Amino acid sequence: MITKTAFGRRRLLRALAAAAGLALLPASLVRALERSATPAQPRGPFYPREIPLDSDSDLVRVAGRAGLAKGEVTHLFGHVTDDRGRPVAGTRVEIWQCDANGRYHHPGDRRDDIPRDPDFQGYGQATTGADGAYRFRTIRPVPYPGRAPHIHFAVSGPDFEPLVTQMYLRGAPENADDFLLNSIRDRALRDSLVVAFEPWTESDDAALVARFEIVLAADGRFGRR
């Protein structure tokens, strides 16, 4: 369980280093202590005003409709762990993103000259298992004016402060100019939000696969840059 009173990772590392010398610590312990919390990003204006009735983890099919969402189907998965590698079970993971046309299914997206894809759910949620794992079926994110391709994430649970962040597409040329991605000055932290989307040979729907690992700080201070 993650608590706000747990001893901070950085403070623990400094204490151990001072007591024994960092070079004398086991390599596995050093790696565990050096896991960085996933950086926070703004929630943005398009989080649902009301959670839709169809809010399961499959965003490419909408209840009551026979069609499949436009775009490249992607199996998106990962784990929620603390910064010592311990899984965080029972966590709610929410995602939301624009459809393949670059439209959010939100009344605040007023670009009426661009049609919405009625077969894309736009928002979904999942709960992590005992191993901290979560999984979604969605589409490869696409850019829209002023933003690189991205998927919004919100992670919440009873024992820690919520984390809101965004996941980006590795290799997207828009990444170089995205103001939110580049607001993270630490390159390693910035890169932790950038994920490869690759062909998944185990799928029968010509799908992609992407893995996004989410790390929460064990001392309760989440999303630090």
> Helix tally?
3
User: What is the CATH C-level name?
Assistant: Mainly Beta
From the N-terminal CA to the C-terminal CA, the straight-line distance is: 23 Å
User: What is the fold named in CATH at topology level?
Assistant: Protocatechuate 3,4-Dioxygenase, subunit A
Strands, total number: 10
Q: Count structural domains.
A: 1
**Structural class by helix and strand composition:** alpha/beta
CATH superfamily: Aromatic compound dioxygenase
Low-confidence stretches: 1-33, 221-225
Question: Can you tell me the CATH architecture?
Answer: Sandwich
Instruction: Give the rounded overall mean pLDDT.
Output: 85
**Radius of gyration, in angstroms, nearest whole number:** 19 Å
Helix content: 10-25%
Shape: globular
What's the story with the biggest beta sheet? 5 strands, mixed
Q: What is the N-to-C succession of helices and strands?
A: HHEEEEEEHEEEE
Polypeptide structure, described:
It is built from three helices and ten strands. It has one domain (35-216): Aromatic compound dioxygenase (Protocatechuate 3,4-Dioxygenase, subunit A). The protein is α/β, with parallel strands linked by helices and 225 residues long. The chain is globular and about 45 Å long. Strands 1, 4, 8, 9 and 10 form a five-stranded mixed sheet that branches. The protein has a five-stranded mixed sheet with strand order 3-2-5-6-7, with no helix packed on it. Helices cover 11% and strands 25% of the residues. The two termini are 23 Å apart.
